[in-house]
């Protein structure tokens, strides 16, 4: 994996923060919970799906809906503020979350309402829906455009769209507060307006200085200098910090070669030197190690994991990271695949035992994941590159997030997915599947044991073959 791929991989991870230097950060490590309940129409089936951010990763939650369309669940969160993604009407509605709050969701005939018995929080939920209606599509369009902004004209168009987005989002905040009162989580929305889209170009020094919109404190060619440890309670700001620091630290370590374990650790160590304070450095280092766990097998991160954890000076974050690495040990080569329940496109439960005697490549993906779809486009070329050996490999796609059945089947047809196609049931599968990034590829041996978790993507296999670099898949086949 070359440096550019590492940077791109880290920038693809998706994870919102505030500017008050006086905010109390002592509660960042505290555990809390919130309640979500509501009533939805039959189109939801028997599950209400959501995801919640954390300091290390996002995790999926599936809440059972009873026969009358009612649901209620208490969800654990970390610290004073996180973010939830509610999957409604084939889209993700993001809302701020705080401990001891209740969110009531009602959705009938495609109309969504969010409410709370807390008057101030209810105002935030009302604005979150307004923001979703006005800004969501533009946000997604900017995300896609950021991948392809290579020509001068495309770069200029991207910069203009980001500046317009930030200005319009802030105007939306101002107009809403003028008519409805101050948002309880004003800083959450203000940082979401800025760092949410600037995060897409955190590794683009040719573009970042051209972003002039936003609060006065953020109108800088180096917006990272505005971030302190106080801001680490906001998901999108810490996500931006991680991307920005990682990009610059990577340039300091190695510019164009395969990265060894020492290089990985040197990037993590260099990041501390360019972070504004110890808490920001700790959060960035934790993100970096977790990002490695999203893109690399356990055996690759193990040699530098302990050194990274030892360098974390924040006790609760060091503890979280230690637990994450210990959990990741379950994915090591030769281990049994953590249990999971898969449903195929005919509605039948699928057992991987039926493929024993044959290597299996599991492709975990999500609807709306651009890199996942790009890998689908390369699948035919990938199989051609394997030649006759392709017949010895069983590919199983695993759609994550329990999508609407018809929409999933439409994707199967659209991308000509002619392998075995399944959906994973998170509530009946090991928790680790709820925290993986997309796409994730897992190579399973003929004996049903893990050969390599986070094995090379099809596009990476093709690239390595072009450069005569051996892959784990080649060895297995």
From TrEMBL:
Compartments where found: Cell envelope
GO cellular component, one term: cell envelope
A Pfam family reported for this protein in Swiss-Prot or TrEMBL: Redoxin
GO molecular function: oxidoreductase activity
Primary location recorded for the protein, binned into one broad class: other
Signal peptide: 1-21
Keywords: Cytochrome c-type biogenesis, Disulfide bond, Redox-active center, Signal
Protein's GO biological process: cytochrome complex assembly
Domain Thioredoxin per the UniProt entry, residue ranges: 331-477
InterPro entries per UniProt: Redoxin, Thioredoxin-like_sf, Thioredoxin_CS, Thioredoxin_domain, Thioredoxin_ResA/DsbE_sf
Protein name: TlpA family protein disulfide reductase
Protein species of origin: Muribaculum gordoncarteri
């Amino acid at each position: 994996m070359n440096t550019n791929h590492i940077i791109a991989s880290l920038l693809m991870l998706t994870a919102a923060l505030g500017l008050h230097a006086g905010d109390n950060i002592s509660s960042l490590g505290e555990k809390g919970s919130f309640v979500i309940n509501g009533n939805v129409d039959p189109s939801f089936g028997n599950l209400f799906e959501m995801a919640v951010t954390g300091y290390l990763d996002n995790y999926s939650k599936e809440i059972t809906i009873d026969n009358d369309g009612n649901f209620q669940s208490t969800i654990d969160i970390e610290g004073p503020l996180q973010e939830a993604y509610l999957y409604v009407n084939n889209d993700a509605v993001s809302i701020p979350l705080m401990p001891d709050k209740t969110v009531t969701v009602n959705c009938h005939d495609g109309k969504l309402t969010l409410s709370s018995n807390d008057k101030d929080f209810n105002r935030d939920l009302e604005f979150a829906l307004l923001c979703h209606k006005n800004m969501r599509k533009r946000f997604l369009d900017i995300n896609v455009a950021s991948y392809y902004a290579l020509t001068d004209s495309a770069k200029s168009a991207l910069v203009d769209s980001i500046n317009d987005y930030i200005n319009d989002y802030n105007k939306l905040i101002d107009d809403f507060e003028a008519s409805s009162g101050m948002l309880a989580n004003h800083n959450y929305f203000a940082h979401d307006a800025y760092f949410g889209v600037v995060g897409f170009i955190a590794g683009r020094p040719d573009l970042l200085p051209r972003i002039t919109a936003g609060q006065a404190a953020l109108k800088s060619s180096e917006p990272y200098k505005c971030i302190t440890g106080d801001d680490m309670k906001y998901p999108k700001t810490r996500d931006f910090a991680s991307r920005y620091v990682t990009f610059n630290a990577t340039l300091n370590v190695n510019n164009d070669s395969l990265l060894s374990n020492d290089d990985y650790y040197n990037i993590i160590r260099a990041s501390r030197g360019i972070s504004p304070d110890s808490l920001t450095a700790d959060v960035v280092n934790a993100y970096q190690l977790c990002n490695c766990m999203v893109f690399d097998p356990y055996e690759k991160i193990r040699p530098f994991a302990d050194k990274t954890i030892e360098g974390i000076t924040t006790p609760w974050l060091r503890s979280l990271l230690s637990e994450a690495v210990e959990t990741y040990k379950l994915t090591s080569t030769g281990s049994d695949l953590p249990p999971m329940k898969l449903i195929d496109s005919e509605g039948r439960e699928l057992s991987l035992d039926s493929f024993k005697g044959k290597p299996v490549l599991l492709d975990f993906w999500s609807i709306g994941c651009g890199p996942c779809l790009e890998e689908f486009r390369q699948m035919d070329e990938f199989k051609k590159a394997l030649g006759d050996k392709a017949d010895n490999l069983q590919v199983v796609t695993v759609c994550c997030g329990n999508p609407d059945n018809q929409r999933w089947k439409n994707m199967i047809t659209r991308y000509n997915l002619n392998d075995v196609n399944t959906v994973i049931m998170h509530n009946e599968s090991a928790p680790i599947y709820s925290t993986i990034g997309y796409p994730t590829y897992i190579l399973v041996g003929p004996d049903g044991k893990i050969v390599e978790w986070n094995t090379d993507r099809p596009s990476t296999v093709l690239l390595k073959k072009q450069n005569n670099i051996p892959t784990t898949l080649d060895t297995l086949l």
